[in-house]
Amino acid sequence: MSNKRLIIWGVDDYNVLGLFRQLGRDNEIIFMVFQGVRHCASLSKYCTKLVETPTLDDGLKYLLDNFKDETNKTVIINSNDLIAEFLDLHRDMLSRWFIVPGTSTPGLLKKMDDKATMTQFAKELGFDVPDSRECHWSSNIEDVTYPCLLKPTHQTLGHYNEFKFKICKDAKNLKRTLRFVRKESTFILQQYIPKESVALVYGCRTLNGKTHLAGVLEKDRFCDNGDGSHGVLVAEFPEYIRPDLIEKFMDKVDFYGLFSVEYLVYKGKAYFIEVNWRNDGTSHLFYQAGANLPQFWVNSSIGENIKHIPVKVASRSMFIDEIFDEENVKRGTISKEQWQKEREEATIFKYYDKDDIVPYEAVKKGKRRKLILDAIVAKNRLYLVYVLDKLGLKRK
């Protein structure tokens, strides 16, 4: 599909980097950078046109000012939750000139992106879900069972979330946490389930209403910031994951585009975590294992040939984050010898690409700085966000 313009709207990170590597060989890509250049995806050799759109409104203005061809629509792919909700809200208007991911009901995605709403919906469809309830700074927590898990229900534009998630071991810990959160923040308070692994299903629902699933990535080791750093990709679904429920979820919401579904796996049971209504940051891992759902979404959306595009991973493949997983050796999670053995066995990598090496080298060079910042944020994020709010400093 040469000389076809695509727009990738997202943050300058490994998610967009992966999209460049899947789509950059055969498409002309415009990268709309949200929240500033960060020297990751923007360093890719496939990044030939970059437009800075610091805010969502800046992005909308750029789209409306520069694209007027109703007969040759431009496909938009996004990689950020806030952008996904924004596009969904304006999907009807933009669909005149663009192929836009989202739902058939404008604004529905913001509701479905709320973790409390999403979790309840999944439970009603038949997913296994941890015991859950909404929680605010002033909620009654007398009957909470510990340990428990606390997560923001939603990402708020202009603010940093107080944390990605927080495990509270006792009532004292939970009370202290709630004392520092914003009064307007809403959380989902869940039963704590130990994490043996995290399973992720990557998929795409095309404009004809058919859901395609590339396979499963099961992550069994994690970086200091919580990202999965080692695992296996397989085409066949384990017994504890039901693809029919995923298809049912997509049909009920009537969502179109790229997505992923995450589960926490414990003792042979997969507990629903969330749906990500945008391209997943692991999409390029599935690509390296043989599937190219982003290109499938593009071609199917504009009526081009899709028969040659694989949508399922080919076979069992081992994944490793070749830069950050080694920190597990220092933590004593794995021996140096075993890590080296698994590194040699891996064929799927997070950053490395011999044909697009500059981003990998940049991330590797900045490893130490990132580890230090991640450690500081992980330990103090709740209090840092509290201080930023008191100072009136907002996230751009």
Automatic annotation (TrEMBL):
Residues 119-302 form the ATP-grasp domain. The lineage of its organism: Bacteria, Pseudomonadati, Bacteroidota, Bacteroidia, Bacteroidales. It comes from the Bacteria. Keywords: ATP-binding, Nucleotide-binding. GO terms for molecular function: ATP binding; metal ion binding. PROSITE patterns: ATP_GRASP (PS50975). This is ATP-grasp domain-containing protein. SUPFAM superfamilies: Glutathione synthetase ATP-binding domain-like. InterPro entries: ATP-grasp (IPR011761).
